[in-house]
Amino acid sequence: MEDPDQLTASDSIVLNVTLDREADEENPDDQVADAPHYPHRKMVSWWLVVGDAKSKQLHAIKKVTVKAKLDTKLEFSLPQGEWGLKLYLICDSYAGADQDFDLEKIKVAEGEDSDDDDDDEDDAMDED
Length: 128
Prior knowledge:
By secondary structure, the protein is mostly beta strands. Helix content is about 10%, strand content about 35%.
C-alpha cells in the first residue's frame, strides 16, 4: 500500500498488487483454460476484489489476465476509521483456484472537507 501511515478520508488509497503464476514451459504466455467441453476457447481471467467481509462492502474490483507476472494497482477511498479488509483473487475459469488475503489494519484519519474548499472560493468571489 502506498503511504499506509498517512491515509486520510479525502485521499485515494492505492494498493499495489503483484500476481505470479506457474506458466507452461513451452508456451509461457498461453492463457487458455483447459476446458474441453466448453464450446469456444476460454481465456483465464481473474477478479481482484477488495472488500470487508464483516459488513459485506465492496471497495475495489478489477478484472485482469495474468501471463507469467502482472503488476497492477487498485485505487479506492475509505471513510475515517480503522478497517480490516481482504483482497480476494477470484478465477473465472477454475473452481477451487480462488484465494483471499488479509490486509494489514488500515487506519484512515479525518480528511479535508471538499465542501469547505468550495465555500472558501465562494467567499473570495463575494469579496470581489
